[in-house]
Every structure is written in structure tokens, then in C-alpha cells.
Amino acid sequence: xxxxxxxxxxxxxxxxxxxxxxxxxxxxxxxxxxxxxxxxxxxxxxxxxxxxxxxxxxxxxxxxxxxxxxxxxxxxxxxxxxxxxxxxxxxxxxxxxxxxxxxxxxxxxxxxxxxxxxxxxxxxxxxxxxxxxxxxx
Length: 137
Fold this sequence. Notes:
By secondary structure, the protein is an alpha/beta fold. About 50% of the residues lie in helices and about 10% in strands. The protein has helices at about 15-20, 30-35, 50-60, 75-85, 100-115, 120-135; strands spanning about 5-10, 25, 65-70, 90-95. The two termini are about 25 Å apart. The mean pLDDT is about 90.
């Protein structure tokens, strides 16, 4: 039975680094955003509907093991992935955590190397969502 591995963790918690080492196809909204709108991507809410439609369409089209590399810090996001999977898929969720200061450090380092930046408030809010998600499970 093919497997969908859903990664869950705030930005800069190590999800993408881990995913790249697995040798499996990776499906990520960040990659879709960059494919559609260029690199580095500048977040614009009016573009998100197109990104998510494309993402869920790609989830539905999977036929073998793959990784979903999004933050998935809310149960609704995880449920929507499961709803869009072909019925014969097994689901595994892998949780990633990193301290707030470590995430801030990684953010600065990544910005210096790539120009990608996540506002500190977004990181902090996502960490709160992540903790709320997994403390209730």
C-alpha cells in the first residue's frame, strides 16, 4: 500500500531538510508558489487559492509513496490532505520541533544564504498552532 508521509512542524523546524534526504517525491506549497510566481516568493493572499487548488490536485494524482512538506500545524490542513488522497493510501505523520530561538537563528541564516525570510511573528504564531494541535491529540 503506498504511503503519504505528512510532515508537521512550524517553519524552520527541519522538515524540508529531512524530506530531501528521504529519496521520495516531495509535494510542497512552497514549491508550487515558486513554480507559479517565481523565486523568492512574496506571499500574497490573493494567490493562495490557486496554490492550494494545485496542491490538492497533485495530492489526488499520487500513485506511490510521497512526502507532504508543508507546516500542517492545524488539524484542518491534515484532514484536507487525507480527504484528497486516493483511497488506497496509508498515512504517516511525522512531527518536527525546534525551539523558538533556534528557528529565529535558522531564519536569519537562511535569509543571508538565500534571501528567503519569514517574519518572526509568523514563526511564533505557527509554533503556537503546532503546540495546540499536538497537545489535544
